[in-house]
Amino acid sequence: VQLVESGGGLVQAGGSLRLSCAASGFTLDDYALGWFRQAPGNAREGVALISSADGQTYYSDSVKGRFTISADNARSTVYLQMNSLKSEDTAVYYCGADPHHLTKEHLEYGMDYWGKGTLVTVSS
Length: 124
Description:
By secondary structure, this protein is mainly beta. Helices cover 3% and strands 50% of the residues. The strands form 2 sheets. Strands 2, 4, 5, 6, 9, 10 and 11 form a 7-stranded mixed β-sheet that branches. A 4-stranded antiparallel β-sheet has the order 1-3-8-7, with no helix packed on it. Strand 4 (32-38) and strand 5 form a beta hairpin.
């Protein structure tokens, strides 16, 4: 399993970014997928989850209504569209994958496999 994130960068508050996670070594349909983030001095936080098999999604309260997770099975890529960004969204964002059935608890407990992360900085 390999996960490679891209799309991070510097953006002003109120702006948008789209993160991508290129997956290889497994079929997206067989795994729970998600985006997590970690700001300096903070614990890792689950942001958004998706099951590409049935389209089920879960979001943390902090991003609900602003972020959208999606998956493209043909491209083996998971996306995170981030709108109305705030300074508190600044963090390293990680893509995760887990071979177990997706549940909301993945937001708290994380995934078995991780990418190396991409930095998102939101200036106020």
